[in-house]
Design a protein that fits this description.
The protein has 7 helices and 15 strands. The protein has 288 residues and is of the alpha/beta class. It has a 7-stranded mixed beta sheet, sandwiched between helices. It is globular, with a radius of gyration of 20 Å. It binds flavin-adenine dinucleotide (FAD) and FE2/S2 (inorganic) cluster (FES).
Length: 288
């Protein structure tokens, strides 16, 4: 006979299928630059998604396709789910062309995190190139909620042109309100640009941080990450304290299909955030 207690026990929720997209409604669409937009999504049913800084979701523009996109919002606040997307092809174009009220599919969150708390008590250096600032933003927002636990926080950011600089208001506030050392460079500056011109790699040797007590987080094109990681190691940052967020073509996002394989690694589950000591031998193999 079933006891009263057993009968009152709630039925445990059915395990969710990681391959089934969950419907999310687009609440706001914010244009960041000429080709980059931030989408703010809310679940059609249920709770906001919990995630760690550095994780990504598979975003589905129904009928067009599904792509991996990093979460760009604040992981310490439950709220709208943010993704910042550069319009480069069919699926990203469909995603940034959605209108408020439209429903998109979300799978995840997937992958490893930046684990920014490992930098507590020391300096943290974040280096981003282009759209790479989007995956780095959650790590910065997380550490700024406990700013007093970190010493120097340095953000080195490279964009193609001044018009391509992402999160302009954030950059100003991080510097002014939180004491982040923000240093920006562009590949091509017009006459009105009074800032630096050159590669973000060139900012590393002069940036003010104590290399031996630094955690470094790097995201951008693979070539840029290779040079930045080496420049950080040359400054004295231990390779295991340098973390890179890798991009690979992905299909399943959960370690089943092999699309994202990088020699022995499946970037969707072993990454996207990986340490440089593990990645260095793979980054030098251009054919992989
Ligand atoms: C873990 C992870 C996180 C990502 N996070 C973000 C993010 O936060 N924001 C964002 O905008 N994108 C992000 N991307 C990249 C994004 O997934 C691709 O831009 C997208 O898959 C392209 O799909 P598409 O159908 O729009 O274009 P496609 O038709 O697949 O490609 C169109 C053109 O863009 C080029 N292209 C494709 N992928 C990339 C890429 N990764 N980088 C540069 N050029 C590319 C192709 O070579 C082609 O020329 C991430 C990728 C991974 C693996
Ligand atoms: S995307 Fe399928 S194994 Fe990584």
């Amino acid at each position: 006979m079933t006891s009263l207690v057993e009968r009152r026990r709630p039925t445990p929720p059915a395990p969710t299928d990681p391959m089934r997209p969950v419907p999310y409604r687009l609440e706001h669409l914010r244009q960041e630059t000429r080709d980059t937009y931030t989408l703010e999504l809310a679940p059609v049913d249920g709770e906001p998604l919990r995630y760690g800084a550095g994780q990504f979701t598979m975003l589905d523009a129904f009928g067009v396709g599904e792509v991996p996109i990093s979460i760009s919002g604040d992981p310490t606040r439950a709220g709208l789910l943010e993704h910042t997307i550069r319009d480069v092809g069919a699926v990203t174009h469909a995603l940034v062309s959605a209108s408020p009220g439209d429903v998109l599919g979300v799978r995840g969150p997937f992958g490893t995190t930046w684990d920014v708390t490992d930098g507590q008590g020391g300096d943290v250096v974040l280096v981003a190139g282009g759209i790479g600032l989007a995956p780095v933003r959650p790590a910065l927002l997380e550490l700024l909620t406990h700013r007093e636990r970190y010493n120097r926080v340095v953000l080195l950011y490279g964009a193609r042109t001044p018009e391509d600089i992402l999160f302009g208001e954030d950059l100003r506030s991080w510097a002014k309100d939180f004491g982040v050392d923000v240093d920006i460079t562009v590949d091509n500056g017009q006459h009105a640009w009074r800032g630096k011109v050159g590669l973000v790699t060139q900012l590393v040797p002069r940036a003010g941080f104590d290399a031996r007590h630094t955690l470094a987080l790097v995201c951008g094109p693979e070539g840029m990450m290779r040079y930045v990681a080496q420049a950080l190691v040359d400054r004295g940052v231990p390779p295991y304290r340098v973390r890179l967020s890798m991009e690979r073509s992905m299909k399943c996002g959960i370690g089943l299909c092999g699309h994202c394989q990088l020699r022995e690694l499946f970037v969707c589950v072993d990454g996207p955030v990986l340490t440089y000591d593990r990645l260095a031998p793979l980054l030098t193999c251009r054919e992989l």
